[in-house]
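Renewal narrative, Specific Aim 1. Our central claim is that a sequence can be written position by position from structural information alone. The example that follows is taken directly from our test logs and has not been curated for this report. It begins with the structure tokens describing the chain, in the order in which they were read.
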């Protein structure tokens, strides 16, 4: 298998748990891990800090080109500041979804994502890992769960109850982001014909990781 093929591409909607599964699979195999959504989140945050509008394609693409971001020591840095938590807010998630619709921004981030692949192999998670960034991946997975279950997982992460106004808001934010990611013209969220479906609605993290490792052992 060539290094280019030593890639597992995991795509799916927000809050599906793909990040947790992907990073655990990477650790189990000794591969590097790419959280591609973090790059879109970093771009949205950087644009906000630099007072660029999220829909201003030229301005945001120029910022994405020179994004002063680093992934090190288990944290995510922007311009020398630890922004690991700041990029996880729902507002920045929406910003990420907005800047991700701009073709020039996607083009600006493409090589940067490919550069994560070194000799070890890579597990990448996002929306277009299998379709655009690593079309030659050895294994492509579409990881999803029902919107209700994803909202419950997000609520638990935030220490909120799985009912009530705050919960309804989480659910509608998730549905709005899914809709935007699916309907956009460039690199829309989709299950590719050559991707295996991993529905985690009734599956725990350990079982999901095991399933991916099992599939990978057979490619
Ligand atoms: O995965 P995460 O929720 O962190 O991604 C944030 C947003 O970035 C997504 O809603 C999506 O619009 C965008 N994204 C993308 N392509 C990727 C990863 C994320 O368009 N490969």
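The sequence written for that structure reads:
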């Amino acid at each position: 298998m060539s290094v280019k093929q030593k890639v597992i591409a995991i795509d799916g909607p927000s809050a599906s748990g793909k990040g947790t599964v992907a990073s655990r699979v990477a650790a189990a195999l000794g591969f590097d891990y790419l959280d591609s959504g973090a790059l879109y989140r970093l771009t949205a945050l950087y644009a906000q800090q630099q007072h660029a509008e999220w829909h201003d394609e030229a301005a945001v693409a120029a910022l994405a080109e020179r994004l002063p971001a680093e992934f090190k020591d288990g944290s995510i840095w922007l311009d020398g500041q630890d922004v690991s938590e700041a990029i996880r807010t729902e507002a920045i998630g929406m910003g990420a979804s907005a800047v991700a619709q701009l073709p020039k921004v996607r083009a600006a981030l493409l090589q940067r994502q490919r550069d994560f692949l070194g000799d070890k192999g890579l597990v990448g998670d996002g929306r277009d890992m299998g379709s655009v960034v690593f079309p030659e991946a050895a294994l492509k997975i579409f990881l999803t769960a029902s919107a209700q279950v994803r909202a419950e997982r997000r609520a638990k992460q935030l220490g909120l109850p799985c009912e009530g106004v705050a919960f309804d808001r989480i659910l509608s934010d998730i549905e709005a982001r899914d809709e935007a990611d699916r309907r956009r013209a460039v690199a829309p969220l989709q299950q590719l014909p050559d991707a295996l479906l991993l529905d985690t609605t009734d599956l725990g993290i350990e079982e999901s990781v095991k399933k991916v490792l099992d599939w990978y052992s057979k490619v």
